């Protein structure tokens, strides 16, 4: 793989990690808008909210690792493969988080 090709992949991974970390943070903040809803209180009492927030935290740590690995991979190309593997894993995490937040938002109807 040529240097230009590696640099392009590193740029893409760095941009991906920074953008997705911001998006995951915004979604995490959005979830807190449901805190006064009845279903959200049940969700929190079950301990599911803690699981969701830990998954958010793990996703942000994964994004930071991708970001750092892709930057360091400019000097050490051998780190490009682990960064790509983490990226695939982060895509799965992202889909899971979005599905969980979406279904939570569907169930959190406004209290009357």
Question: Could you list some keywords that capture this structure?
Answer:
single chain; about 110 residues; mainly alpha; 4 helices; about 80% helix; elongated
Characterise the protein shown here.
By secondary structure, the protein is mainly α. Helices cover 80% and strands 0% of the residues. The model has no long low-confidence stretch (mean pLDDT 86).
What's the alpha carbon Rg, rounded to whole Å? 17 Å
Arithmetic mean pLDDT: 86
Q: Total strand count, please?
A: 0
Q: What share of residues is helical?
A: over 70%
Q: What characteristic shape results from the CA principal axes?
A: elongated
Low-confidence stretches: none
Number of helices: 4
Strand content: under 5%
Secondary structure category: mainly alpha
Encode the helix/strand succession as letters.
HHHH
Report the sheet with the most strands, covering strand number, pairing sense and barrel closure: none
First-residue to last-residue Cα separation: 61 Å
């Amino acid at each position: 793989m040529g240097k230009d090709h590696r640099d392009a992949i590193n740029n893409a991974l760095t941009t991906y990690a920074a953008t997705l970390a911001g998006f995951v943070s915004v979604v995490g903040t959005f979830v807190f808008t449901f805190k006064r809803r009845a279903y959200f209180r049940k969700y929190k009492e079950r301990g599911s909210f803690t699981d969701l927030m830990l998954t958010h935290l793990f996703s942000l740590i994964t994004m930071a690792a991708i970001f750092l690995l892709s930057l360091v991979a400019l000097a050490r190309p051998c780190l490009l493969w682990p960064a790509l593997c983490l990226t695939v894993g982060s895509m799965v995490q992202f889909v899971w988080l979005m599905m969980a937040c979406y279904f939570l938002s569907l169930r959190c109807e406004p209290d009357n």
